[in-house]
Amino acid sequence: ETGVTQTPRHLVMGMTNKKSLKCEQHLGHNAMYWYKQSAKKPLELMFVYSLEERVENNSVPSRFSPECPNSSHLFLHLHTLQPEDSALYLCASSQEGLIRWDSGDTQYFGPGTRLTVL
Amino acid sequence: AQSVAQPEDQVNVAEGNPLTVKCTYSVSGNPYLFWYVQYPNRGLQFLLKYITGDNLVKGSYGFEAEFNKSQPSVPLKKPSALVSDSALYFCAVSPQTGANNLFFGTGTRLTVIP
After folding, report:
1. Is the pLDDT of residue A56 over 80?
2. Burial class (CB within 10 angstroms; exposed 0-12, middle 13-18, buried 19+) of A65
3. I need a labelling partner for A116 at 20 to 30 A (CA). Which of A10, A107, B16, B69 fits?
4. Could you give the angle at the alpha carbon of B54 between the alpha carbons of B50 and B60, nearest 5°?
5. Is the CB of residue A113 less than 8 Å from the CB of residue A88?
6. What is the DSSP string of B28-81?
7. Using one digit for the tens of pLDDT, what is the confidence trace for B7-35?
């Protein structure tokens, strides 16, 4: 295991529901990420948090609302989603928000939450 | 603009044969290239990192990558495939160190046939 856990692993929701995805990292990292993985498309970076501050928001619709209460936990709050939002949502963490790839830092991914919007 | 391409959606190889998974990229500067593997119901697992200037890079589970000047590309290779290597493989690129994201390819599904 990578030290990054995500709950729930599967979620089915209607378009009018409100739900939240949870991510927890046990690695002592300072940065956390949300990615969206859709079939046959590249992973899309959604949000980046570094030391609990949001440092990147890649034009994600407001129906996705992230929250980072501390450096170990990251949430993605969902409301009034669309069927095209169905995907695997991956959380990742790294030691720092600006990753020094040449020093050996990298991103560690959780197993993902498979979201289906009906 | 940065771009990463994995031209094959699916690669099939017989167990024991060498395998290659392709990835080409167009990134300015001296990028860092990564290979990740995703097993069913699991997150992405880091396999190896290629830094511009490297020749052959050895990674986890017997995988390796060698820079191909003509494309440019850094295909993922393994001399002898195992059935347990069957998974989804992603390449990703970061244009520089000190960045906070990776540009991913669309993934290649590798099936190793017993």
Report:
1. no
2. middle
3. A107
4. 45
5. yes
6. SSS-EEEEEEE-TT--EEEEEEEETT-SEEE-GGG-EEE-BTTTTB--EEESS-
7. 999 999 999 999 999 998 887 777 888 99
Rounded CA separation B38/A78 (Å):
25
Range 64-103 of B in CB contact (< 8 A) with A: 90, 92, 94, 97-103
- Residue B108 to chain A, least CA–CA distance (Å): 9
Direct distance between the N- and C-terminal alpha carbons of chain B, in angstroms, rounded to an integer: 41
Residue A99: per-residue pLDDT: 75
Whether the bond into A69 is cis, omega within 30 of 0 = no
Q: Of B45, B51, B104, which is closest to A2 when you measure between CB atoms? A: B45
High-pLDDT (> 90) share of chain B, %: 51
Q: Closest-CA residue in chain A for B102? A: A45
CA distance A85 to A118: 10
CB pairs under 8 A between A and B: 68
Q: What are phi and psi of B39, to 5 degrees?
A: -85, 160
Are the CB atoms for A109 and B43 separated by under 8 Å? yes
Q: Does the beta carbon of B110 lie under 8 angstroms from any beta carbon of chain A?
A: no
Q: How many helices (H) and strands (E) does chain B have?
A: 0, 12
Chain segment B43-76, per-residue pLDDT in tens: 889 899 888 777 788 999 999 998 877 777 889 9
Opening angle at CA B101, ends B97 and B106, nearest 5: 120
Which among B43, B100, B106 has the least Cβ separation from residue A40?
Answer: B106
